[in-house]
User: Fold these one by one.
Assistant:
Number 1:
Amino acid sequence: MKSYRSHLLLKELSVLLKSGLPLPKVLELLSRQKAEASQKILEVKKSIEDGEDLVRAFSKSKLFPEFVCEMLIAAQTGESLEKIFSKASDLLARIEEFRARVTGALIYPALVIGFSFLSVIVVLEFIVPKLRKILLSFGRDLPFLTKVLLWGAKFLWWFLLLGIPIFLVFGAWWIKKKGWYEIHRIILKIPVVGTIWLYFDLSRWSYTTALLLESGVVLPRAVATGGNSCQNLYVKESLEEIIKFLEEGQSLSRHLRRYGFVPEFLSELVAIGEETGTLPEMLHNASDIMIKEADYLIERTLKWLEPLTILFIGIVVAYIVISVILPIMEISSSVKL
C-alpha cells in the first residue's frame, strides 16, 4: 500500500472538481497538501498541461492502481470526471479496508508464533544442552521425548539452511518455465485464498465494465478495459478471449459460463441484464455481491485462525515443557540415588 491513502486522494479530487475548479488547479492544490505524493501529482499536472491524454498521464505517474486509470476512459466518452474519481474512491476504499482488516487480524497470530519460535530456540540452544551434560555426568541419557525434540530442531535448522534455498531455486525455475499465468491459475484453486482473490478481481471487472457501459462505451471495449483491472493473469487473459466473440455479436453470459472459475450467479445476472437491457445495473449488483462474499470469507477464516493458532502454540509449548521437565526429573532421581 502506498504511504498516502489512494482512496482519500481520489475523493478529494472528486470534491474539488465538483466545486468547479479545473483539473490542473486541483492537482496543484493537492500537491501542496500531499507531501508523500506531491511529485507524482505534479507529474500528472505537467503531462495534462502538455496536452497528453488523461488516461496516459495518470497511468504513467503510477499515482493510482492501473484499474483506476482504466476507469478514466469513461471521462473521454461523456462521464463526468468527478463522478469517476468518486466511484473509484469508493471501490479503492473497500479494497483497502479489507486489506487493513486482514493485516490487522494476522498481526496477533504472527506475533504469537514469532515469540514462540524464539522461545523454542532459547530452550533448545541453552537449556536442553546443559540438562544433557548433567544427565551424562550421572551416566544417564535424555528421555525419548526430549531426543525427538532435538531431532526435530536439527531437521528445522537443515530445512532453513537448505530447504528454503532449494525451494526458492525451484520456484524461480518453475516460474521461468511455466510463467506467472500458470502460477496464478494454480493460486485460484487454493481454498479461501484463491476465492477471495477471484472475487476481488471479478468485482473490479464488473464495477469498471458497468461504469463504462453507463458512459456509452460499446460492450467489447468495456469488457476489455474492465479486464485490464484484473490482477490475476489467468482471469485477465480468459476475459480477453471473450472479446472476439462479443465483437461478432455473441452473448457475454454464454461465454462466461465456459469458464469454471466464474461464479454461477455472475453468469446468471449477466444473462438477466442482457435479456432486460439492464446489464450495467446487473454488473453493479454482481460487484456488490462478490465484495460481500469476500468479506464473509475473510471474517469466517479469521474467526477460525486465532483459536487454531492458540491451539497449535499450546500443543507445541506443552510438548516443550514436558521435554524439559522429564530431564529435570531424571536429574532429581539421580541425585536421590
Number 2:
Amino acid sequence: MNLQKDTLYASPLGDIDGFKFDASVVDVFPDMIQRSVPGYSAIISAIGLLASRFAQADSVCYDLGCSLGAATLSMRHKISAANCKIIAVDNSTAMLSRCEKIITRDTASIPVELVCSDIQDIKIQNASVVVLNFTLQFIPLADRNAFIKKIYAGLRPGGLLVLSEKLFFSDLRQQSLQTEMHHAFKKANGYSDMEISQKRASLENVLIPETFTQHKNRLLQSGFDNAEVWFQYFNFASIIALK
C-alpha cells in the first residue's frame, strides 16, 4: 500500500467538487484519515477488541463502508468465535480494489467477503457485529432511520453496532469550539488553512453530521436496548449500541 501524503487540497482549486472516494483519494487515504480524524487509530484498535467480545459462533460481522479495510482487519485479527465470516462493503470500486490487495496480503484466517455495493442495498442477516465507521454521515438524512432499523433487524440477540460519526452540537458555542479544535488538530498535523478550507467546502452537503442525541434517539427507536458514546475526541465520536 502506497503511503502517499495527502496534498489533494494543497493548491487553489477554484470550483471545488463534492468529495468522492475516487482513485485520487484512495492513494492518500491512510495519510488523510490519520491527519484528519482525531482518534482514528484508537477507534480501529477498539473495534477489534469489541468484535472479540461480541462476535458469536456461526455468525457474520459486517464492515459497512469498509474503505481500505482497517476495521475489517482489526476484527479479523481479534475474532476467536468459531465459523465467523466478515462481509466488507463499499461502493467505491477504487477503494475496494485496493482493499482486496490488502486483504490478500493479510495472513489471518477469518474469511472475508468483499462486496462492491451501496451499503443500503446490503441484506443484513445473522449478524453479531455491525460496524459503521464514519459512513452513516454520508447517507441522506431521509434514509438513515430505515437503514438503522434494517441493521437492527439483521442483528442476533446480544449483537453489537459500532457507529462512529462526526458530531454536530446544538449549542452554538460548543459547535464553534469543537470545529475550532478540529481545525487546530489538522493544522498540528501539517494541513494549511487553505487545505482545511477547501476540504471543508468539498464535504459541504456531502457529509451531514448530527448530534449525539439524534443518533441515540434513532438507535433506541429502531429497537436497540441502549446506546452510549464510548469514545470522543473533539467532534468525532464512536457509539456502541446493544441489542
Number 3:
Amino acid sequence: MQDSSNNLIIKSLPPSTDRLPLFIVGDVHGCARELVELIETAKKHIPKFQLMLVGDLFTKGPDPVGVFEVIQEYSALCIKGNHDWALWSTIQQAQKRSFHSLAEHTKQTLHLIRYHKRAIFDLLCSLPHAFVTTVVSQLKRSEWETEYPLIVVHAGLDATKGLLGTTERMLLTARYVRWDAKGNEKKLIVVPAGYRSEILNQSISAFAQKSATSLEKERFRWHELHNGPALIVFGHDAKQGLFRKTLPSGRPICVGIDTGCTYGNSLTGYFPEVDLAIQVRSQRKYFDIKKNVILLKPHHSRLAVV
C-alpha cells in the first residue's frame, strides 16, 4: 500500500431522502451464513434497504463464494479493506509468486474461490476506499441536527486532514495512530499491528522498559481526534468490538462495527438513518489466529494448487 492520497477512490451517494436507507455491515471475512441471517434479521426492522459492506469480504472465513453471491444478489456496495487489497495483490501477482510461499489462510481462500477467481478479482479492482453521503435522521431528537455528513471507511481516517487528506494506508489499516514530529511538520502516522509486541519484546533493561512505556503511551485510537460533525462508520477493529462515540447531544459521530464474526463472536450491521445496530452470533469459530488458518469442515480441508 502506498502512503499517498493521490489514488484514492471515494464515491458519493445521494442523501437519505433520495435513496433507500443504508444497512452497513462490518467485516464479513467469508462468513456467508451469518451475513444472510443478519440481512434477514435487518429486514424485520426496515424491509427495504441498500446493503453496504465495509470491507475484508472474502478472506479468513469458510465461504467467500457465498459472500460474493450475496453481494451480487443485493447489488451491495462494498469498500476496500486491507485483506481485499492483499487478495487483489496476490491474484494479480499469481504468475510471479509461488503458491507454496503464501500464508496458509491465503492458500485456503484461493482454493475456495478457484472457480470464481476472475469475477472476484474484477470486483476487488472496482472497490472504492470510502463512501460519503448525507444522513437525514428518521429519529426525532430535539438536540440533533436534521441532517449530517456520513463517511464510511474500512479502518480509519486522519481527523486533522479530513478524508481527502488521509493516506490509503490509514484508510485500510488504522487502528492506533501516533504523532510523528520528525521534520518540520507534525503529522499522524499509523501504528503497525505488531507495534506493541515489538516494543514489549525488547530486552528487559531499565532503558528498554522506560522506552516501551513511553512509546506505549504515545499511541491512541484514530477516532479520539474526531469530534464531528460527520458520522464515521468503520470496521477493522475487532478487538475494540461494537463502538459508539457521540456528541454531548447523544448524536453519534463514530460507530465501529467489526465484531469478529470469523473469530467466533458476532456479525454486526448498522442503520445510520435510525442509529440502530443489529447483531447475529457466529455459528462457530472459523479462524485460528495462532495457527493462521481457516478452520474448514472436513470436506473443505484438502487444498489444490491454483
